[in-house]
Amino acid sequence: MTEIIKLINNVETLFNIFVPGAICVWCYSKLSLRKMEYQGYLTLSIAIGFVIKYCVDYADRLLGRFTIAGFPIIVVYVLVGIIGAIVFYKGKNSICVRRNVSKFLGVDSGDNVWTRHLDPEGNLLTLHMDDDTYILGLFENADDEYITLTNYCYAKTPAGKDMDEAAQKPYTDAVLCVPTKRVKQFEILYPNPESKTAKYVLR
After folding, report:
1. Which residues, including other chains, have CB under 8 Å from residue 14's CB and lie 6 or more apart?
2. What pTM was computed for the model?
């Protein structure tokens, strides 16, 4: 750990390696909703920063006459880090990659319950609350603290007459933010069972 701190304290290493790597790791962790320990974050940031620097420097030498003289290379390092994080996140959570990783390695490469099960075409969520009421709504987004729904309704049962009647008159003029700590469990529904995600998840 001490050696890592010494490495970061080197100004050139800080700006050309650690900063781009740290931004890349930060972007990915935000997209994937993953939390990382401090030591692991530092180590991974430096490792990825070295990879980014090597790739950018190699491309710079390869395309030397096409590059802009005097343009700050740190900006390129950071941009490559951000783009790399987004591309890795999108690829890792794509159905094609998940299907093949699951087939050959027996694991799901999806980052979390949301990226593994949510459909780009939209999902309905039924939330079982801690007061034993149920909320049905169109999923918008979620994080560690809140699940947000639109076109939502309340009922005393997850299905049947009470829920059917409530679903006929949903709240359409507001966004509902539900604290995740109040949710006992939830059910993800697929309005379009023929979508790629639904077919993969419900296989």
Report:
1. 8
2. 0.77
